[in-house]
Amino acid sequence: MTTDSTQLGESGGEQRLSRRRALAKGTASTVAAGITGYVVAARARPTAPPAAAPQAGASRAGPRSAAGTDTVSARGSRQAGVDRPVQPQQHVALSVYDLPGAGRPDAPGSDFVHRSGKLVTGLGTRALMLTQGGDAALGGLPPGDVTVTVGVGPRVVAAVDSSLPGARELPEFAREDMPDSARGGDLMVQVCASDPQVVTLADGALRAWLRERSAAPRWEQYGFRTPTQRAQPGHPAPVRNLLGFLDGMVVPSTPQELAREVWLPTPARVRGGTVAVVRRLRLDVTRFLAQDLDQQERAIGRRREDGAPLSGGGPDTPLDLGAKSAQGRYLIPAMAHARRANPNGTGSGLMLRRGYSYANGPDDRGLLFICFQRELRTFVATQQRLDDGDELSGFATATASATFLVLPGFSAERPLGASLFS
Ligand code: HEM
User: Fold this and answer.
1) Pocket test for ligand 1, best of 284, 353, 358, 393 (most atoms within 8 A of CB)
2) Which residue among 204, 276, 297, 396 is buried most deeply as judged by most CB within 10 Å?
């Protein structure tokens, strides 16, 4: 059996219902939870040595890859690679393209829309073939848990209907240093797998297929995640980033949270899709690590060893943003990243962060930030609040930036992009 959102139902995973929840508490959190309607679950487990256990969310009995992982169905009402497998695979190739039809697309119903829809449908078919096994492009390797996730950029969505989610471009933010070619784009192809060779070969096959159809590559980034212990059922385990801190602790993960924060319920054209933001963030790792541990932890707002909040308790304890020292100072400093990014402060939704570390060389390494949410505003409000004062942001420079509508799921009977382009 493979993991498939149609099999799991609209909520995306019945096993997640059994999840132990840690509810937000503390003065500030409680007040703001009332405002935003959130119940933010904080959960963390220190990472463990490499384990060959199957990825959570993968099947028990599909074809297995060289890395010993199980398959993840490409089919479903929602695309794979967003919340399944539950534990993101260890490797990613994220590519951004422009679709043929340069210049401004015409009004809805234009040839640009028609041709884009046709190309996306073909891309979905090609992706299905790659994930099913036996595709010559994988050189005999089993596909394992490879997933291909496709999104279309604002220019494409707006050409269909400018009122749809995903039709708006990302604004510019502080600390950006990127050529025009690394900003925006028409098409996102995210390939993830436990086996980096499968990622490379599948990404290469899709790239060749797209180039043959005149899609123009903009930028591409490979990324990796540290191995984790097998995640608890239904819970993505946080992983250590290049700064040594556990990342991905506060994310929506239950079916209810994912339905509320990530998946688009309406309109019908986008139901089962989500809005992705991808940003390549170059980190000054050397300068960050040159600080003493206390400074590093104050920049994040959590302990490096186990991710416990500086307000006290263990890794599972929610942030207490109101907690103060005997001298009246916030235990989680005013400019700590965890405080600045907390939805209670931004008044926005809670994004699903599913990023990867990257290393293009000693001076270009950092975080390939990938997040999914219902509303672009969730990312924008959070980023703007970080721009206004976030200790960690002083170590980061964005070198690529884009947003995409991740299309609703697909199958052999229901082609990729069918609802958007129909
Ligand atoms: C500059 C690179 C970044 C690094 C190294 C980083 C790292 C971290 C770490 C270690 C945490 C605490 C653990 C956790 O909850 O996952 C965290 C939390 C978080 N980060 Fe980042 N982050 C970065 C950029 C961003 C950006 C650009 C955003 C969105 C605009 C963001 C949004 C969040 C959110 C929403 C949380 C959870 C806050 C909470 O409610 O506790 N981060 N990040």
Assistant:
1) 353
2) 276
DSSP 8-state symbol, 327: T
Q: CB 103: neighbour CB atoms within 10 A?
A: 7
For the stretch 167-204, pLDDT in tens is 999 999 999 999 999 999 999 999 999 999 999 999 99
Q: 382 CB under 6 A from ligand 1?
A: yes
Q: Is 386 in the pocket of ligand 1 (CB under 6 A)?
A: yes
pLDDT tens figures, 398-413: 999 999 999 999 987 8
- Catalytic one among 203, 247, 320, 390? 247
Q: Measured between alpha carbons, how far is residue 368 from residues 74, 141, 244, 262 in Å?
A: 23, 26, 15, 19
Helix axes 111-132, 196-212, angle to 10 degrees: 150
CA 391 to chain centre: 23
Q: How is residue 92 annotated by DSSP?
A: E
Distance CA 302, CA 299 (A): 8
Tell me the one-letter amino acid at 37: G
What spacing in Å lies between the alpha carbon of 317 and ligand 1's midpoint?
17
Q: For 30-54, write each residue's pLDDT tens digit.
A: 323 322 333 333 333 333 333 333 3
The ranges assigned to domains in the chain are 5-421
Listed in sequence order, the DSSP H helices in 250-309 are: 255-261, 285-289, 293-300
The answer to whether 158 and 264 are in contact (CB under 8 A) is no
The CA–CA distances, whole Å, from 283 to 22, 161, 351, 366 equal: 31, 37, 21, 5
Mean pLDDT of 355-383: 97
The per-residue b/e assignment along 394-413, b for 16 or more CB within 10 angstroms, e otherwise, is: ebbbbbbbbbbbbbbbbbee
Residue 247 known to be catalytic: yes
Compare 256 and 15 and report the one with higher pLDDT: 256
**pLDDT tens digits, one per residue of 351-364:** 999 999 999 999 99
379 lines ligand 1 (CB under 6 A): yes
Token pair of 402 as six digits: 């884009």
Average pLDDT over residues 342-355: 94
Are 275 and 376 a contacting pair, CB within 8 Å? yes
- Look at the alpha carbons of 387, 157, 407, 213 in this order and tell me if their dihedral is positive or negative: negative
Instruction: Confirm or reject: Cβ of 160 under 6 Å from ligand 1.
Output: no
Residue 322 Cα to ligand 1 middle (Å): 19
